[in-house]
Amino acid sequence: MRTLAPPALAVFALCACNAPAPQASAPPAPGSAAVTPSNFQLPEGGDCSAKIARYRAIQDNDLSMGHVARSVYNQIKREIDAAERVCAAGHDAEAKSLIVASQKRHGYPTDL
């Protein structure tokens, strides 16, 4: 029987990484990776754009590993996109709160 570590556990392991990850232009294929790549690094920073970039990187990684269904990924992507628009409008705290709400709604830790 094959078991997969919960996505949240993978997130905690990845929080120690400290260099920004390049943003992919298209999401990865679901289940295309068996493990998180050794060069995977979460973006740094404390502003809303950094929090959005980290959450997006985690989602792409979870999708590639098959930890999140495409339909859930698409819903989270819409939530991230909404937060990104708010962030771009200069509303840092509001954008961060949108990301935290999405993380809570989908069972992710909120201290990423």
Task: Give a verbal description of the structure.
The chain is built from 4 helices and no strands. Helix 2 (48-65) packs antiparallel against helix 3 and helix 2 runs parallel beside helix 4. It has a domain at 42-106. The chain is mainly α and 112 residues long.
Instruction: Return Rg in Å.
Output: 13 Å
Helical content stands at 40-55%
Q: How many H/I helical runs?
A: 4
Strand tally: 0
Order of helices and strands: HHHH
- Name the shape in a single word: globular
Largest sheet, in brief, is: none
Determine the strand fraction and express it as a percent band: under 5%
Low-confidence stretches: 1-22
Summing up helix and strand content along with how strands pair, one would put the structural category as mainly alpha
* Gap from first CA to last CA: 31 Å
The average pLDDT score comes to 80
Break the fold down into its secondary structure elements and pairings.
Blueprint: H1 7-14, H2 48-65, H3 70-88, H4 92-105
What features would you highlight for this structure?
112 residues, 4 helices, single chain, mainly alpha, disordered N terminus
Summarize this, please?
By secondary structure, the chain is mainly alpha-helical. Helix content is 53%, strand content 0%.
